[in-house]
């Protein structure tokens, strides 16, 4: 029996953007949190260690508040089987290698694979989010970028009422 939960998907809307998920008070955020394979390119290089952050409690709440204060963000609420979404992320997280010598949220990160900004077939913040949501029964078309996800969610909402856009700035007070 599927138990519906709400996965809150945060899509940052500026620059290169970022996507992360909160479900049942746990934040999962995937990115190049350990640098790229091309140090001269910094965070814009297409390849690097794919690091999954798993944040709970106050760390999760603070991460959401800090990211949303720093970057313009849309929040989408997607109905999914929460146990399956968390199982997907937790399997990746538990198979990863803990980061060493990191501070703040990054000390909770684990390298799980190679981050590939460009694809096809590579993982980035958007593709990992789609995989987790679809594993949880969302049945939505995957995109390669945060902008593509935002476009899809805005258009998909017309036919699927399981996705709801919330204005993050109006909802921010509920996080604090």
List the helices and strands and how they pair.
Layout: E1 4-12, E2 19-23, E3 26-31, E4 47-56, H1 57-70, E5 73-81, H2 82-95, E6 97-98, E7 109-116, H3 125-135, H4 146-156, E8 163-167, H5 168-171
Antiparallel strand pairs: 1-2, 1-5, 2-3, 3-4, 4-7, 5-8, 6-7
Tally of DSSP β-strands: 8
Would you tell me the overall average pLDDT? 83
Shape: globular
Overall helicity: 25-40%
- Uncertain spans, ≥5 residues at pLDDT below 50? 167-176
User: What class, by secondary structure content?
Assistant: alpha+beta
Strand fraction = 25-35%
Q: What is the terminal separation in angstroms?
A: 34 Å
Biggest sheet record: 8 strands, antiparallel
Return the domain count: 1
Order of helices and strands: EEEEHEHEEHHEH
> Number of DSSP helices?
5
Strand order of the largest sheet: 6-7-4-3-2-1-5-8
> How much is the radius of gyration in Å?
15 Å
Chain oligomer state: single chain
Features of the shown structure:
disordered C terminus, alpha+beta, eight-stranded antiparallel sheet, single chain, globular, 31% helix, 31% strand, 5 helices, 176 residues
Q: How do you describe this structure in short?
A:
Helix content is 31%, strand content 31%. It has 176 residues and is α+β, with helices and mostly antiparallel strands.
Could you walk me through the main structural features you see in this protein, from its secondary elements to its overall organization?
This protein is α+β, with helices and mostly antiparallel strands and 176 residues long. The protein has one domain (4-175). Helices cover 31% and strands 31% of the residues. It contains 5 helices and 8 strands, in the order ββββαβαββααβα. The chain has helices at residues 57-70, 82-95, 125-135, 146-156, 168-171; strands spanning 4-12, 19-23, 26-31, 47-56, 73-81, 97-98, 109-116, 163-167. A hairpin with a 2-residue loop joins strand 2 and strand 3. Helix 2 (82-95) crosses helix 3 (125-135). The chain is globular and about 40 Å long.
